[in-house]
Amino acid sequence: MTTRRTRPAPRPPEGTPPRAELARQARAVLADAVRIAHWAAGTPGPGTAAPLAAHALERAATALELSPAQVRAGWDRARLAGLVELHGDTARPGWRLRAWDRDDSAVLRGWVALFDAWSLVHAAPEGIEAGAVAEAVEAVPQVLSLLQLSAGSVTVPALLDLLGQRVAELHEERCEVPLGPGRTAPAASAAPAETAADQAATAGPARSADLNALLLDWALEGLAAVGALTLGKGHATLTPLGNWAVWVKLEQICVAAQSPAGNIEQSAADMLLGCARLTPGPARDEYRAWLAARTVGSAVAELLAVARGEDALLRGLAFEALRVVGGPAEPEVRAVLAEPSLRPYALLWLAEYEGIDPDDAQDVLSREEATWLWVDTAAAVADHGETGLLVRHLDSAVQGTVPALLDEVRAVGHPRTVQVLVALAAAHPDPALAKAVRRAAFQVHTGGA
Known about the structure:
- It contains 23 helices and five strands.
- It is mostly helical.
- Mean pLDDT is 80; it is low at 1-8, 45-51, 177-207 and 254-261.
C-alpha cells in the first residue's frame, strides 16, 4: 500500500473574511442585478434581450422603483454574472440565480465572472484606439497583484508606473519599436485624423504617460464599479472581495493542483476537480475507484447532475467519467440528447460507444453543435486553464477563419459567449485579432450585429 502525499489546501491571506461574509458582500454588490434578473425571468414574452428594449426598461424601472440608468446597469451586470441567460428574445433564470440564496459558491463565482468582465461594465474613454485599451486590460492583472501583495493602499503614481512598465513590456514582446530621433513619422497630410492613442504613440514619453494615466483612471473606476477596490484621494485599496479574488487567481497560476486523497469519498464535483490536472490514465483510475464505491444508477445520475451545472470544465470531465462507466450509462446519456447544453457531449459519447474512432467522432456534430462545444470548451479553459491554451484553442474551431468563427459564435447563443471572447481578446498576442474579438464581445454584450 502506498500513501500519496498531497499539498494542503492553501489558506487565504490573514484577515480575509470567511466565505459566508465574502458571499454576503458579493450579494450586496449584485443586489440590483438579482432583482432585475428575477423581474426579467418572470416577465413573459420578448423585449428583455440586450440592449434592454425601451418599453421593458420603463416597466422594470416602475416595478422595481429604480431609475432607468440603474435598471440598464443592473441588467448588464445580471447578464455578465450569469444570473440570466438569453434564448432568442427571452430571458431565462441562470443556474446561479436559482442557487443565489442558498449557495455561497455560486454567488462568489457569479461575482468573479463580473469582476473578470470589468472592462465591459465601465465603458472605455472615447477617442482612444482599441489597441491601447486592450493593452491596459492586459496590464491590469499586474496592477491588481501589486495591490494584493501590498496588503493596503497603493498610491496612484506607483500604479501608473507599473502600468507603464507593463505596457512597455508588451510592446517589446511584440517587437514594436517606438520612433527614435533618427526616424520620422508619415506626413500629416497623408494620414487620417489621429486618435488620442495615435498621438500618444508619436508625441513622446510625456504624451504616452498622459494616455496611461487616462487608462489607469478608467481601469480603477471600472474595478471600483464591480466592488473590487475602493478609491481614495490619490490611492486605491482592494476590497475584501477584490483581495480574495486576486489571491485565488494567483493561487491558480502559481500552484499546480494535485488530486486530493480520498476521492472515493468525495462528491462527483469534488472528485472531478481533483482529477482535473491528472493525465488521462491516472484520471481513469480515479474514476474507476469512485465508481466502484457506488451503484451505477446513482453514480451516473450524480455525474449528469454535475454536467448540467454552469462549470464547463466539470461538464467535460463528467462525460469522461461516463466513458469509464460504458454501456450501463447508455440509456441515461441518450436521454439527455434533448438538453442543448449536454447534447454535443452526449453525441460524442454515443458515437464513441458505438465504435466510431474518437478522431472521427466530431463528424456527428452539426456545425452549430460544434460551435457551441467550442465555446463551452473555451469557457472551461478560461476558467481553469492557461492563457496560451486559450489562444491555441482557436485552431480547433471548425470554421477555419477567425471572422467566420466570430460570426457563428455570436449566433450560437452560448450563455458564456461574452466572457469567453473577453478572455480570448485579453490573451491573444495579435493586437488586430484581439481588437476584432473584443469588438465581437461588445456586440454580443450590447445585442449589436
